[in-house]
Amino acid sequence: KGRDGFRQDTEQCMENAQYLASRLTTAKIPRIMLNTLSSTVVFARPQSHKFITKWQLACQGDIAHIVVMPNVTRDKIDEFVADLILSSTNV
After folding, report:
1. Which stretches in the chain have pLDDT values below 70?
2. How many helices (H) and strands (E) does the chain have?
């Protein structure tokens, strides 16, 4: 992969983390946090245990987080956000 490959992966992860945070903001999900040099997006813990289990979310107290890795695509982010919105309306 080399240095350039790792750099591209890192840049893609950072961009996708920003995209996820933006999509969560648009969906009005509360308490979104994303540090500038991080690919970890923190947000309010979903109420649905089924949703948390399905997406294997890391939760502590009233927050959850996602670490955006190279395998996390924008299509997967869109699917996640749509499912989160749906699960929030079904609680």
Report:
1. 90-91
2. 3, 3
Give the DSSP per-residue string, 12-29.
HHHHHHHHHHHHHHHTT-
Q: Phi and psi for 33 in degrees, rounded to 5?
A: -135, 135
Helices 74-89 and 2-26: crossing angle in degrees, nearest 10, is: 30
Query: Which two structure tokens, joined as six digits, stand for 10?
Result: 């890192």
Q: How far apart are CA 31 and CA 53, in angstroms?
A: 21
Q: CA nearest 27: which of 89, 75, 91?
A: 89
For the full predicted model, state whether its pTM sits above 0.85: yes
* Cα separation, 37 vs 5, whole angstroms: 18
Q: Which residues contact 91 (CB under 8 A, 6 or more apart)?
A: 47, 48
Residue with tokens 């699960």: 87
With beta carbons less than 8 A apart as the criterion, state whether 40 and 72 touch.
Answer: no
